[in-house]
Structures are given as C-alpha cells and as structure tokens.
C-alpha cells in the first residue's frame, strides 16, 4: 500500500498510554478483496482491558478539570490531523474493509466531522437555573462527565463509529477505551496515533483488540466504567444491555435495522431510483440504515422496478481500491451466504430475480434485484446486510405503513412522495428513529442518529449525542 505516512498502518494496541505491537500470534487483518494479510494486531483480554480502564480513570480528573475550550483545542487538532491524512486513512480503510476508496474518503470526512462537531458542542454543555419551590432555596443544574466510557464498534464503519463515540466522550471530559471489530482494527489504531499526535494524553483513548467476549466482560463487570456504547448486531447488543445492568452503566446501543423504502405513486421516480441505489447499495448493503425492503405503490411499481433494474445493472463490482468501483467485496463468506439465502428463499416462495445474485469470485457478489417479494419471505423480516434490493408491491398508504412497521426494528425508514399532507402523515406514522423523505442519505454529524424498538437506545451525533456522556446533577441551595 502506497501511503504518504506508512507508520499509520500499524498492527498495535494503545493500552494505558503504552503501545503493544501485534505479532504472528495475534489477529491477522486481511484485505477482503485480495486475501492479503495487512498486519497482525494483539490478542489481548480482560487484564489489559482492566489496565486501560484504570489508566483512563487516573487520567480523567485532569482532563475533566480543563475548560471545554482547552479540550476543544486538542480535539480540533485531532480533526485537522484526520483530514490532513484523509487519503492514507481511506486507503487503510479500503484495504481492511473493502469499501470503494471514494466511500472510504467519505467515511474519513464523516468520522472527522464528529470530532469537529463535538469539539464545539462540548462548550455548550449547559446546565440550568430553575425557579425554586421555596423563597429560601435556589436550584442549579450542572452537567458533569459521566466517567470512564467504553465502546465496542463494528467493521462496517471502522472510523466513524469510533469518532461518533469518542468525540462526545472526550469533549464531555470522559476518557474512552475502544474495542474495534477484529476485522477492521487498523483504522482505529491509525486514529489513535493521530489523537496522541494531536496532544491527547494517551491514557484517555485506549484501543484494545482480542477476545470480544472477554474484553466486553471486563467493560461491563468493572464498576469504574460508567458508560458503554455499542454499535453492532442486535444479538450482541441485547447481551451487553443485560450485562451493563451489573453496575447500572449508562448505555447507548445502535443495533440492527430493517429499513423500509417506500415509493408513493406521486414520487419523482428518477429521484426515488437514485435514492434507492444510494440507500441500498452503499457499503455493499452492509449498513444498518441501508434500505432492506423497498415498497413501490401499484401505480408506479412497474416503471420504478424497470428503472431500478437498469441502474442496478450499471453498478460496477470490484476491488475497492480500483477506480470506478461502486461495490467492493463483502466482509466475509458468511455475509455472502446470508444474502444468497435471502435470494433463494424469496425465489422459492415466488419472487423473481431480475438481476444479480451471482458470485464473482472471493466475497464479491453481483448486486441483486428481486420483484414480487411478499411478507412471507425471510427478507421481509430479517436484515440482509448485503447487496440485495427486494421490491414489494402495495396499494394504499395505510398498507405501506402497516407493512413498514411490521418489524421489531425501528432504526431508519425512507419514503418518496410529493403531497405535503401525505408526507407528514407518513413521517409521523412510521415507527422509526430516523426518516429520510425524498432522500436516501440521512447520516450527518449535526442530526441525532439512533433507533427505537429493538434497534437500540440513545442517540449519537448532534447536541443530543453529548448528553449520552453527561450526568445531570442538581444543587439545592438554602439561602
Ligand atoms: N448495527 C450495525 O451497524 C451493525 C449490524 N451488524 C449486523 O450483525 C451481523 C453480524 O455482524 P457481526 O460483525 O458479527 O456483528 P457483531 O455484533 O458480532 O460485532 C460488532 C462488534 O461486537 C463485537 N462482539 C462480538 N461478539 C461479542 C460479544 N460476545 N460481546 C461483546 N462484543 C462482541 C465484535 O467483535 P469482533 O469483531 O472481535 O467479533 C465487534 O467489535 C451483520 O450481518 C449485521 O446484520 C453488524 C455490524 C454493524
Ligand atoms: O451501519 C452502521 O453501523 C451505522 C453507521 C451508518 C451511518 O452512520 O450512516
């Protein structure tokens, strides 16, 4: 890999301010496009997680005692360094994750934006003065950092899922110990290198790799950890929710989705097709906010499906590092097989495969489009997390709302339509934390990202994201 700063590609961990290098006994990080081994990161466990937590607790008082502006200056420097090294970080990400280089560049900018945003937002951790209940009392509300925070992050957004947690934590005055996904730890390590370069006390941001269950066991059993933030599968999220109860840790969970994408009969069809392509095939469909079920109203169904099929056929599959690639490899064979199972199940139950679904070597899979999909098929209920667009036909708005809400998930939903009253009715009726209306792209650092129902708890990004790392303390003063 041709990097301007080759030292950013480092198979190491940062534990309690100390670098620990990986070796052949560690976890091999491979390029999903080529199978090449990029590096080995250490295989650590509970003891090192405990060490990182203890060092974080030691470093916290001095960090929390600084002014928000002083913290912001360091965070701003970290943001600048991430953007200065955007190209190297994007190359590292594409190599370990597979997404096209253009998407990696976008994710690095997106990741950096959380640091920039929270560097400023930390200055606005306002408290309150409340009119008292008695003449001889005064009531003040303070916002204080929650304490040592821990994060467990997934492989699909190797940088942004770290900064979306570490940004608000550090801005609020909390240190963080991060366990990145084993498949994509190199982006996390590169971010930590730049954080230290920015002047952050290295004990304030540890990065630990190894046994996920052992590290998570320490995160949840260690009473020093006061906040746990997780992005990943619903199954693991539920386990962590239960484990965090041991010490009643404050928790944020960003879990699975089953996003509906509804095309009403008055929609701008070209815009809807583009929105569907963006929302469905970004990161090869491996995004928790990817549309999983596309509902097209009867009046425009056939025209929409025909146009969508043309666009899906144009998508170029290849190594993310190659110019012009729209869809890179999937993360592993299990991901390929799950997508294939959803296609096979739908076809066996009467759906039509209009294009794609074929293996293209390794973990490359041709983007697929199904029509004639119904509620009985697995894809209606389960998140595919792959490049498969299943189209359902519906008649009335009420039918679309009922179908869209018939899931235990509630992360993102999308719809396209023009009529203002319909737009409001649908937006309000959808049981989701985020609704994209006439757009397939909703992610930004300035808006609250998060789900309802079994898609999680808490919000990340925006002014709401800072609250997740703050406690509210009330002072009752007799005068
Ligand atoms: N909401 C989202 O954004 C995401 C959803 N998913 C969904 O989950 C499916 C499976 O993906 P997968 O990568 O296995 O997701 P996981 O939930 O298993 O992985 C996410 C993170 O959790 C860690 N983890 C794994 N097991 C445990 C455990 N027992 N205790 C604590 N942490 C653990 C992983 O570590 P390690 O990598 O070391 O195993 C990783 O850091 C996907 O197909 C998709 O449907 C996946 C990723 C993100
Ligand atoms: O898929 C995820 O893990 C959530 C990140 C996606 C985004 O922020 O758009």
Write the SSE topology:
Layout: E1 12-15, E2 18-21, E3 27-30, E4 37-41, H1 46-65, H2 68-84, H3 86-97, H4 101-121, E5 128-130, E6 137-145, E7 148-152, H5 160-172, E8 176-179, H6 185-197, E9 205-207, H7 212-221, E10 225-231, H8 234-243, E11 250-254, E12 259-263, H9 269-281, E13 291-297, H10 298-314, H11 333-348, E14 352-355, E15 368-371, H12 378-381, E16 388-394, H13 397-405, E17 412-416, H14 420-429, E18 434-437, E19 456-457, H15 462-467, E20 470-478
Parallel strand pairs: 7-8, 7-10, 8-9, 10-11, 12-13, 12-17, 13-16, 15-16, 17-18
Antiparallel strand pairs: 1-2, 3-4, 5-6, 6-20, 11-19, 14-15
Glutaric acid (GUA) binds next to α5.
Please characterize this protein's 3D structure.
With 479 residues, the protein is an alpha/beta fold. It folds into two domains: 6-255 and 455-478, 3-Layer(aba) Sandwich (Aldehyde Dehydrogenase, Chain A, domain 1), CATH 3.40.605; 259-437, Aldehyde Dehydrogenase, Chain A, domain 2. 40% of the residues lie in helices and 21% in strands. The protein contains 15 helices and 20 strands. It has helices at 46-65, 68-84, 86-97, 101-121, 160-172, 185-197, 212-221, 234-243, 269-281, 298-314, 333-348, 378-381, 397-405, 420-429, 462-467; strands spanning 12-15, 18-21, 27-30, 37-41, 128-130, 137-145, 148-152, 176-179, 205-207, 225-231, 250-254, 259-263, 291-297, 352-355, 368-371, 388-394, 412-416, 434-437, 456-457, 470-478. It has a seven-stranded mixed sheet, sandwiched between helices. Strands 9-8-7-10-11-19 form a six-stranded mixed sheet, with helices on both faces. A three-stranded antiparallel sheet has the order 5-6-20, with no helix packed on it. Helix 3 (86-97) crosses helix 4 (101-121) and helix 9 packs across helix 10. It is globular and about 70 Å long. Residues 152-156, 179, 181-183, 212-213, 216, 231-233, 236, 240, 254-256, 288, 383, 385 line the site of NADPH dihydro-nicotinamide-adenine-dinucleotide phosphate. Residues 154, 156-157, 160-161, 231, 287-289, 443, 449 line the site of glutaric acid.
């Amino acid at each position: 890999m041709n990097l301007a700063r080759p030292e950013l590609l480092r198979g190491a961990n940062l534990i309690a301010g100390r670098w620990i290098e990986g070796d052949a006994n560690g976890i091999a990080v491979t390029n999903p496009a080529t199978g090449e081994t990029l590096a080995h990161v250490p295989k650590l466990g509970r003891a090192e997680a405990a060490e990182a937590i203890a060092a974080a607790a030691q470093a916290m008082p001095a960090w929390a005692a600084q002014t928000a502006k002083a913290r912001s200056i360091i965070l701003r420097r970290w943001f600048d360094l991430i953007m200065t090294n955007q190209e190297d970080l994007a190359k590292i990400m594409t190599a370990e994750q597979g997404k096209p280089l253009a998407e990696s560049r976008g994710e690095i900018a997106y990741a950096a934006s959380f640091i920039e945003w929270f560097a400023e937002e930390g200055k606005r951790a306002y408290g309150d003065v409340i009119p008292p209940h008695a003449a001889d009392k005064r009531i003040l509300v303070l916002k204080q950092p929650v304490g040592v925070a821990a994060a467990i992050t997934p492989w699909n957004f190797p940088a942004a899922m770290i900064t979306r947690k570490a940004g608000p934590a550090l801005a609020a005055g909390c240190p963080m110990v991060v366990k990145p996904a084993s498949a994509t730890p190199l982006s996390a390590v590169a971010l930590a290198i730049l954080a230290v370069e920015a002047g952050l006390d290295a004990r304030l941001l540890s990065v630990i790799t190894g046994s996920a269950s052992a590290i998570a066991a320490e995160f949840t059993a260690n009473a020093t950890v006061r906040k746990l933030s997780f992005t990943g599968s619903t199954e693991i999220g539920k386990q962590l929710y239960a484990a965090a109860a041991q010490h009643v840790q404050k928790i944020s969970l960003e879990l699975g989705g089953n996003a509906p994408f509804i095309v009403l009969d008055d929609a701008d069809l070209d815009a809807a097709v583009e929105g569907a392509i963006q929302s469905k095939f970004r990161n090869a469909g491996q995004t928790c906010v990817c549309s999983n079920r596309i509902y097209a109203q009867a009046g425009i169904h056939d025209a929409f499906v025909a146009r969508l099929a043309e666009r899906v056929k144009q998508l170029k599959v290849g190594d993310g590092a190659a110019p012009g690639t729209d869809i890179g490899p999937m993360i592993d064979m299990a991901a390929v097989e799950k997508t294939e199972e959803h296609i096979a199940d739908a076809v066996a139950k009467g759906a039509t495969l209009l294009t794609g679904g074929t293996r293209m070597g390794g973990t490359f899979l041709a983007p697929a489009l199904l029509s004639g999909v119904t509620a009985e098929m697995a894809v209606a209920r389960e998140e595919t997390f792959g490049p498969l667009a299943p189209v359902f036909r519906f008649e009335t708005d009420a039918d679309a709302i009922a179908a869209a809400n018939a899931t235990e998930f509630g992360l993102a939903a999308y719809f396209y339509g023009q009529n203002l009253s319909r737009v409001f009715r649908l937006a309000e009726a959808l049981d989701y934390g985020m609704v994209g209306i006439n757009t397939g792209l909703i992610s930004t650092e300035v808006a609250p990202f998060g789900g309802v129902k079994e898609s999680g708890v808490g919000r990340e990004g925006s002014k709401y994201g800072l609250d997740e790392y703050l406690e509210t303390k009330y002072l009752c003063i007799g005068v």
